[in-house]
Here is the input.
Amino acid sequence: MIQVRQLSKHYGATRAVDDISFEVSEHENLVLLGTSGCGKTTTLKMLNRLIEPTHGQVLIDGQDISQQKPELLRRNIGYVLQNNGLFPHYTVAENIATVPQLLNWDVGRITKRMHELLEKLHLPADLLKLYPQQLSGGQQQRVGLARALMADAPVLLMDEPFGALDTITRTKIQAEFKALDELQRKTIVMVTHDVQEAFELGNRIALMHQGRIVQIGTPAELLFNPASAFVKEFLQAQRLQLELKSVKLTDVWDNLPTPIVSGMQPVACNEQSVWWAMERFKEHAIQNIAVQHPQTHQVKTITFEQLMSAYYQYQNALQPHE
Ligand SMILES: Nc1ncnc2c1ncn2[C@@H]1O[C@H](COP(=O)(O)OP(=O)(O)OP(=O)(O)O)[C@@H](O)[C@H]1O
Ligand SMILES: [Mg+2]
Here is the structure.
């Protein structure tokens, strides 16, 4: 869906983006991860021609974007700006309606779509007549997202969409974001400097450093097969938690003890991670949980120690020499 070929942006001697190439498949969520100043925003803005590259090429849906009119191109690309980028002198309703108005939608259609999105994003309708500074940070970010989703463009670019939020609000909005049906059918490039967020939301992650991509791959690939010492170090501080989140219960299934019958109601473990199971023990202060394999429907009742032991066995099998 998106092909980036040897893309660079130089400002004098500064190489903001330095010869990067990557592809994003349809319906994939690619996260650009990296510390401040590594070139994430510059990369994102070259995808919708808010910035013109010094070298290189971007194709969207097979079309070279440099051959398209920027305003037409942007109709097919939703964009959530860093720090939400709402117009301060426009009401929430006016902010959300900017793109559909450019597209000459009639008032009825705009209103209908606006209310549909407010509901999906858990925003009360009486916010519509307020100005951005009258909203909380979380509400502002939801409005920014609503604005980007209004025209239902197939591609969505998001620059630090959850950047300004406290950890609790952030986790909550991330979870809602993951569950949102509108987003599942989009091709998304999302920028963040937050490792946990990248792992939570990205199908693949491009780790950037000084304008270059140092590694691109699935969260598990970056963790278990780091391309360099830099990648390894970047993830080091949060390594254990990331690993527990990226290993699924089905991955460690064979290392869990053989089933013991218990009366407990099992939970189906489709995509759930080892971390998720640990949280259940913690939240409910219980000794056992019963989990069910999604394909075989086998049920296993396990303790926390059995879970940990299965996880370490899995780990050891994966990387015997460290
Ligand atoms: N218009 C410009 N003129 C000169 N240098 C620029 C310009 N825009 C960006 N840069 C430089 O390019 C580099 C990359 O900037 P960019 O905004 O892409 O970083 P970023 O990864 O988005 O950082 P942050 O996480 O802080 O948002 C920085 O060193 C920045 O100072
Ligand atoms: Mg930025």
Notes: The pocket of magnesium ion (ligand 2) is lined by residues 40-41, 82, 159 (CB under 6 Å). The first strand starts at residue 2 and ends at 11. The mean pLDDT is 90. The CA atoms of residues 16 and 204 lie 22 Å apart.
